Amino acid sequence: MSKNNVTPHTNLARQVIEVIAQGYPYRASNCEVLPYTKGQRPLDVLLIDFEVVGICQKPVLDIRRIEPIRIEFFEEQTPKVFVHRKDFPLVPHLMVSKDGNEKWLCYSDVVDEELKLKMNGRFLVECINNWFVKTARNELHHPNQPLEPFFLGSEGVIAVNPSFMANSSQFNRFIPKEHNILLQVGDDNPDKSANWYATIWLSIPASANNIIRKVPDTLIDLLSMINSVDMLQLFKGNCQT
User: Which residues contact 135 (CB under 8 A, 6 or more apart)?
Assistant: First the structure.
């Protein structure tokens, strides 16, 4: 039911269009497939005026009956769903780009590997609708649900010796391994590939107030993101010990 005649490249995008075209229970007042541009990272992009099914009469958070969204489909990756309303509120389970111009949904708490196995057009549309409905009621995060990790994804993994937390040495040697893994070794390790790194252990209590919406670029960015603890003072205290 795309208003233009552009044919999606991915089967998943075609499934989403088919689900919406059926008109029950999910609908859209507009669905457009953007033309594919060579070199463009997404394989397909859908612009949809998504009609939220089952939204409450008086939403606690500002979710509206029709929400314009953009869905980007990638090769062998889970699709990303962006909200297009400029005044869309900063709600839980919403990621924000560094410049604040892009906002996308954390529409599933399932890990990517499992999510790929479940993914089809109807499942994706149901996830999007469920996100809007529960966010409107401020019920998206269940009371028994564990706190979200600070950051989605990682640039690597650091494996430290059990004694590291006890010693709290500010400089330690690490050997680079495959898959961006750094493995801590003792000072007497003869491996010449081991490098010295400044390492500081900070213990931060879990808090529901620490809602992280973007990945920090600098140490100051990181320290300023934690609200439950004066991170700058904690950091300075550990550096002086």
Answer: 61, 63, 91, 92, 93
